[in-house]
Design a protein that fits this description.
mainly alpha; 434 Repressor (Amino-terminal Domain); 5 helices; 54% helix; globular
Length: 85
């Protein structure tokens, strides 16, 4: 399974390319530096929810669209699951 940060990075690039926007334009629309946006798109940074919302708005899409394909880690324990006996 592809790591979530790689999925987000791929989706950011795909949407940006579809809109024919530069990284600088997306960053400006999201109120962040171009370098910070570049780190997101390269998968080297994990954004806060607030940042994701601003980037999604700049790309005229939703957080759900940007995170499409991300699924829970099947190896992680579900904190809401019943304890094993």
């Amino acid at each position: 399974m592809q790591p979530p940060d790689e999925i987000l990075a791929r989706n950011l690039r795909k949407v940006r390319d579809q809109l024919d926007l530069s990284q600088e334009a997306v960053a400006a629309g999201a109120g962040m530096s171009a370098r910070a946006y570049q780190r997101l798109e390269s998968g080297r940074s994990n954004p806060t929810l607030r940042t994701l919302v601003r980037v999604a708005a700049s790309l005229r899409t939703t957080v759900a669209a940007l995170t499409h394909g991300v699924s829970p880690d099947p190896e992680a324990e579900d904190p809401a699951a019943e304890p094993k006996t």
